[in-house]
Amino acid sequence: MPTLIAGVLALYLLLLGIRRFARLSPTSAAALVRNGGAVAVFVIAAFLLLRGNFAGAATLAAVATSLGLFGGRGRLAWAPPASGRGRAASRRRVRRRSRCGSTRIPER
Questions:
Q1: Is residue 21, in this structure, part of any structural domain at all?
Q2: What is the reported pTM?
Q3: Residue 37: which domain range?
Q4: 34 within some domain
Q5: 45 in Cβ contact with 57 (< 8 Å)
Q6: Do residues 67 and 38 touch, judged by C-beta distance below 8 A?
Q7: How far apart, in whole angstroms, are the C-alpha atoms of residue 20 and residue 22?
Q8: ∠ at Cα 28 (83, 21), nearest 5°?
Q9: pLDDT in tens, 35-72
Q10: How far, in Å, are 18, 23, 30, 100 from residue 11 at the CA level?
Q11: Closest by Cα among 43, 101, 89, 2 to 80
């Protein structure tokens, strides 16, 4: 009987989690999956470290770090932004105009 109650409770919690996950925006769902995956990989790395598999634990810890477990920005969180002016500048779109001209290509 306790097993049946635990199974029904686990099913209820699973369905509740699925319902909440379905209501998330795509960006927050992606962040949740990435961070959840990073935590799962880090837990597996800790288990391998306890078992004595140092090479496997170090590899999985590096994967967990690249997924954004530490740093918050995600992949390669220690790398500087592409533009060098911060994250907001890298998100802005700048319309650039070509410097080279041609008589055969008409301008818009």
A1: yes
A2: 0.52
A3: 2-77
A4: yes
A5: yes
A6: yes
A7: 5
A8: 165
A9: 888 888 888 999 999 999 999 899 888 887 777 666 55
A10: 11, 19, 24, 64
A11: 89
Question: The tokens 């810890």 sit on which residue?
Answer: 61
| Domain contains 107 | no
CA distance between the termini of the chain: 75
Say how many domains are in the chain: 1
**What average pLDDT does the chain have?**
77
Joined together, the tokens standing for residue 47 give: 């288990």
CA distance 17 to 12: 9
31 is a domain residue: yes
3-state secondary structure the chain: CHHHHHHHHHHHHHHHHHHHHHHCCHHHHHHHHHHHHHHHHHHHHHHHHHHCCHHHHHHHHHHHHHCCCCCCCCCCCCCCCCCCCCHHHHHCCCCCCCCCCCCCCCCC
Amino acid at position 79, single letter: A
Whether 75 and 31 have beta carbons less than 8 Å apart is answered as no
